[in-house]
Specification:
This protein is an alpha/beta fold. The protein has a single domain, classed as 3-Layer(aba) Sandwich (Hypothetical Protein Ychn, Chain: A), CATH 3.40.1260. About 50% of the residues lie in helices and about 20% in strands. It has six helices and five strands. Helix 1 runs parallel beside helix 3. The protein is globular.
């Protein structure tokens, strides 16, 4: 629990600092975010951060994606555990994305994961592509 709270605090602080550094540009367009994580429980502070940023950004809040990569993709098959994260993410307008490369590496069939999750071929590449489009990014 302490790690979740600390993670949320660090995530919020990081995003706040980045946002303050770009105040004039941000008033003119949407704010888009991407978080790359290797641990499913980190979805909780990620979603809370998205909710805080949505309040702060108001109408300029854009897209928010959480990319799951690494061995933790094996846990995505646990529909009971993922159900709560998926519901909270949908309410917070957070898209949960799964790394297809990780699915292959750890032998997880796409058919075994919840249909609400988007699968991309390569989560790290997807993250870089979003950064090139101007998304603010952090890796946990």
């Amino acid at each position: 629990m302490k790690k979740l709270i600390l993670g949320l605090f660090i995530l919020t602080l990081t995003f706040t600092n980045v946002l303050n550094a770009q105040t004039s540009k941000q008033d003119q367009h949407s704010h888009n975010y991407v978080v790359l994580t290797k641990k499913i429980p980190q979805l909780q502070p990620i979603i809370l951060t998205a909710e805080a940023l949505a309040k702060e950004d108001g109408k300029s809040f854009g897209d928010f994606q959480a990319i799951i990569c690494g061995k933790t993709v094996q846990d995505i098959k646990d529909n009971e555990m993922m159900k709560d994260f998926i519901e909270k993410a949908e309410k917070a307008h957070v898209k949960i994305v799964v790394c297809g490369f990780s699915l292959k590496k750890f032998k997880v069939n796409k058919k075994d994961i919840p249909i609400e999750l988007e699968v991309v071929d390569n989560g790290i590449l997807h993250d870089f592509q979003l950064q090139k489009k101007g998304y603010l990014s952090i890796e946990l």
